[in-house]
Design a protein that fits this description.
The protein is an all-alpha fold and 170 residues long. It has 9 helices and no strands. The protein is globular and about 45 Å long.
């Protein structure tokens, strides 16, 4: 995919996240977010600082135009961008960095991509739910919310990851 194609898909999916936040409240136990997979799929040639800036702008935009609690998505998304290279290195290995290649389901395998998304989604939700509850909700509520949100976000992210990280060898 060309660079412009990735950024167009990224912006459209960020707008889709805003629509999800505004109109699709499934329950108090499920917070559906595709933001971690957006950050995870930022091209490898963009460094950690650049990814953190993109994550900040994306999270701030979603917070400003949808959530109502300014800074919550930003607070949870920037650490995902900070550990993005570590997740990619841990799951896919260092050869992606040496070849300056992005990952895809076809090249890396469905299992590895699913694990990387699960790690990014879990980190995002841990920070988001911790900051959102801020000690006012019981542990059982936060645990159920984390589990349900992780499952829902992971499944939706698996559906859209091929849009952001397609195989360029097709």
């Amino acid at each position: 995919m060309r660079k412009a194609g990735f950024y167009i898909a990224y912006v459209l999916l960020a707008i889709a996240q805003m629509l999800i936040c505004n109109y699709f409240h499934l329950s108090p136990y499920v917070m559906l977010s595709i933001l971690p997979v957006l950050v995870l799929c930022i091209p490898i040639r963009i460094g950690t600082v650049g990814a953190m800036c993109i994550a900040f702008l994306t999270g701030f935009s979603v917070d400003l135009l949808s959530e109502g609690i300014l800074g919550l998505n930003t607070l949870a998304l920037v650490p995902v961008a900070f550990v993005r290279n570590g997740i990619i290195r841990l799951v896919f290995g260092g050869e992606l960095f040496s070849r300056k290649e992005d990952f895809s389901i076809r090249k890396s395998g469905f299992g590895k991509v699913a694990v990387a998304i699960l790690i990014a989604q879990a980190l995002f939700l841990l920070i988001y739910i911790w900051a959102d509850g801020a000690g006012t909700r019981p542990l059982w509520f936060n645990a159920v919310r984390f589990g349900a949100s992780l499952l829902a976000g992971w499944l939706v992210s698996l559906l859209i990851v091929d849009t952001l990280a397609p195989d360029t060898r097709k």
